[in-house]
Write a structure and sequence with these properties.
Layout lengths: L4 E6 L3 E6 H7 L2 H6 L19 H14 L4 H9 L10 H5 L7 H4 L1 H7 L2 H7 L4 H6 L14 H13 L5 H8 L2 E4 L2 E4 L2 H19 L2 H20 L11 H9 L2 H11 L4 H7 L16
Antiparallel strand pairs: 1-2, 3-4
Helix pairs in contact: 3-4, 3-10, 10-12, 13-15, 14-15
């Protein structure tokens, strides 16, 4: 740490210094929790290579916005954008039958306002309403446009999922620019590459039967335990490990987690089970 800056380091963006507001935000319980939430849900149970956290993604988005010259407020919004993800990330959507995969957006304001974040923001001259009602064009764009959130998870999840190389991802980052305040790409080859990388990520990682099984079975188990009263909804706003531990306190839960790791009933589940319905998404990055 140097004076009034903290240093962060990421495999995509390298080393970067951030102002102290980020240090204070990263020290809140709400953001520390994201360090214990797997970006890809329960997939790590069946594929231990995919074990990066939501926090890594949140910091990555922040760094990407900063790299592009976005305002400090937009960088803060980037760090906070996933603060309301449940344990196991999108598994929460499957638990609550949220087909749009945006359960975390529905509870965002509540989670944010109940956290220590508003006080930290005030300390640095910001207000939580600026986050709740601000427009952040670098951070968020509707599909099929490119934005910092979508770009970071495409590269990060793609590298961790083995569909793109780290080196190629970093190379791509040299071709992005801001156009009219939104992310654009300055070479045709790179537009084609990122659109294809996004498609590969969706088809070969998000929709991989093994991964759908892990997240679907975990959702099924959590739903069942919520109905039985073994779990309560607030348990979903803890870390993955805390939720797993609570599930495992019962013999039934312990066995259920073990059977997910052993892929028990895989074929049966894929044929007849509550397989997560993943939205079909395409990316169409802007060429300038």
């Amino acid at each position: 740490m140097q004076g009034n800056m903290i240093q962060v380091n990421d495999f995509l963006y390298g080393k970067m210094e951030l102002p102290m507001v980020f240090s204070d935000l990263l020290n809140t319980d709400a953001l520390k929790r994201l360090g214990g939430v797997h970006q890809s849900g329960a997939i790590f149970l069946v594929n231990p290579d995919i074990c990066h956290s939501r926090l890594e993604h949140a910091i990555g988005v922040t760094m990407l916005i900063r790299m592009l010259g976005g305002s400090e407020l937009e960088q803060i919004a980037g760090l906070l954008h996933d603060i309301s993800h449940t344990a196991f990330s999108h598994v929460g959507d499957y638990v609550f039958d949220n087909l749009d995969e945006d359960y975390h957006e529905k509870v965002f304001a509540e989670v944010l306002c109940k956290s220590e974040v508003p006080d930290v923001l005030l300390k640095y001259g910001y207000n939580v309403n600026q986050i709740l009602y601000g427009t952040f064009d670098i951070l968020e764009q509707p599909l099929p446009a490119l934005c910092a959130d979508r770009l970071d998870y495409t590269l990060r999840d793609g590298v961790h999922g083995g569909v793109i190389s780290r080196q190629r991802a970093r190379e791509f980052l040299t071709s992005i620019v801001l156009n009219d305040g939104k992310i654009a790409v300055n070479a045709e080859t790179e537009v084609a590459w990122i659109n294809e990388a996004f498609e590969k990520l969706n088809n070969e990682v998000f929709k991989l039967p093994l991964h759908l099984y892990a997240n679907g079975k975990m959702a099924e188990l959590i739903k069942k335990f919520l109905n039985k009263g073994i779990l309560v909804e607030s348990d979903l706003f803890k870390t993955d490990t805390m939720l797993l531990n609570k599930i495992r306190t019962s013999y039934e839960g312990y066995e259920a987690i073990k059977s997910i790791k052993q892929l028990k009933g895989f074929a049966e589940f894929m044929r007849h089970g509550a397989v997560p319905k993943i939205k079909t998404r395409t990316l169409n990055a802007l060429l300038v």
